């Protein structure tokens, strides 16, 4: 059993990551049963689940070992759910694992309601939370309404609502343990989506709004003439002009000319406008957008 200070420390962690609110709404409980969850790696090492640590999808490809203290005559249920991972419903979860009617603390003797499925956070969605919730059962429960045929690779069939599940079963189960980790995209998921889930890999990009520009005026005050006009020009056109300037200085058949030691010591045409002379100096010193010239 955990000390009171450990309860509060872990509860603050769960509250910080919004675990209770996203899974149980306004409900709250103290996780009194510590869970020891470890993912075995190909090299024989074990990767533990703490409280929000990062585990890559390829590191969690196989179901973990779960150990907790339980009386041999007791019954338990273990649910692994992802409140961030449903691809089509905003307020739904994706259940990754569900073991019910676990005798004592022997997970292997439990009834597999939903087979294990590794995390699959799509590219561009950032880290997703995968939460293990351990329930203590008062009796053997018929979970047939939640049962899915293995391997259950149709993601729509893994739709889950923890709050709804607990409301339905609250007379027979009591939440007792909680742990979670976070996972974000890695390169193993491309093959996982294509070959395991048999679907096109979803990729999300942030749609950045266009930067705000003040409407142009005829006589801008305290603004450099050329820089002011560049703000209202097409960036592609500016890049094209710079590329053409660079191409004029490059000859594939001639060696590159040595740079002058003191570029701004070269004479200038005083008849040129001041803004043109400033641009010439920037180009000579390779400042700003002329750094690649």
From TrEMBL:
- Per its UniProt entry, which superkingdom is the organism in? Eukaryota
Keywords of this protein's UniProt record, alphabetized? Answer: Coiled coil, Mitochondrion, Ribonucleoprotein, Ribosomal protein, Transit peptide
Q: Which GO terms describe its cellular component?
A: mitochondrial inner membrane; mitochondrial large ribosomal subunit
Q: Where in the cell is it found?
A: Mitochondrion
- Pfam families found in the cross-reference section: PBP
Keyword Lyase attributed: no
| Family assignment from sequence similarity | Belongs to the phosphatidylethanolamine-binding protein family. Mitochondrion-specific ribosomal protein mL38 subfamily.
Please give the name of this protein: Large ribosomal subunit protein mL38
Q: Which organism is it from?
A: Daphnia magna
């Amino acid at each position: 059993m955990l000390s009171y200070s450990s309860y509060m420390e872990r509860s603050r962690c769960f509250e910080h990551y919004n675990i209770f609110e996203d899974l149980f709404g306004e409900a709250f409980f103290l996780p009194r049963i510590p869970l020891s969850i470890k993912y075995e790696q190909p090299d024989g090492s074990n990767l533990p689940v703490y409280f929000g640590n990062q585990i890559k999808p390829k590191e969690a490809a196989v179901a973990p070992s779960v150990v907790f203290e339980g009386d041999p005559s007791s019954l338990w249920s273990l649910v692994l759910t992802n409140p961030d991972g449903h691809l089509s419903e905003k307020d739904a979860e994706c259940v990754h694992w569900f073991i019910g009617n676990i005798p004592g603390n022997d997970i292997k003797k439990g009834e597999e309601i939903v087979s294990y499925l590794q995390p699959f956070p799509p590219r561009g969605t950032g880290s997703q939370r995968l939460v293990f919730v351990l329930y203590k059962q008062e009796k053997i429960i018929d979970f047939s309404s939640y049962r899915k045929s293995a391997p259950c690779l149709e993601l729509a069939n893994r739709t889950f609502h923890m709050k709804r599940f607990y409301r339905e079963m609250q007379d027979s189960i009591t939440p007792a343990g909680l742990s979670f980790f976070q996972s974000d995209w890695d390169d193993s998921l491309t093959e996982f989506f294509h070959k395991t889930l048999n679907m096109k890999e979803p990729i999300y990009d942030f749609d950045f709004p266009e930067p705000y520009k003040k409407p142009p005026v005829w006589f801008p005050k305290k603004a450099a003439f050329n820089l002011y006009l560049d703000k209202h020009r097409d960036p592609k056109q500016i890049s094209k002009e710079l590329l053409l300037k660079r191409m004029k200085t490059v000859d594939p058949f001639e060696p590159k000319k040595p740079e002058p030691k003191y570029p701004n010591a070269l004479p200038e045409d005083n008849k040129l406008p001041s803004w043109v002379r400033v641009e010439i100096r920037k180009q000579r010193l390779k400042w700003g957008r002329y750094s690649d010239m």
